[in-house]
Amino acid sequence: xxxxxxxxxxxxxxxxxxxxxxxLDRKAVEQCDAGDEEVFRATFGRLLALVRSHGRPIPEDExxxxxxxxxxxxxxxxxxxxxxxxxxxxxx
Length: 92
Prior knowledge:
The structure is a single chain. By secondary structure, the chain is an alpha+beta fold. The chain has one domain. It contains 3 helices and 4 strands; from the N terminus they run ββααββα. It has helices at about 15-35, 35-55, 75-85; strands at about 1-5, 10, 55, 70. The longest helix is centred in the first third of the chain and has 20 residues, at about 15-35. The termini are close together.
């Protein structure tokens, strides 16, 4: 899975870590639905950390389409609530 963190770059994530990312995405949706910004921020931080620590950075000069585009780290809670809805940002 290719994941882009807006304003940062792209990372290639293996299937094992993609599943963990999907779980964090679902939790973020639940927290946005509940209006729990503090817990959402912690979950979103873990989501970004997972991508950064377990993903292989893709060089900027390599053109690859992203499977998932995550909001930037400084996303507002209002913007997050608009994006983290339904089944979340991550397919499947």
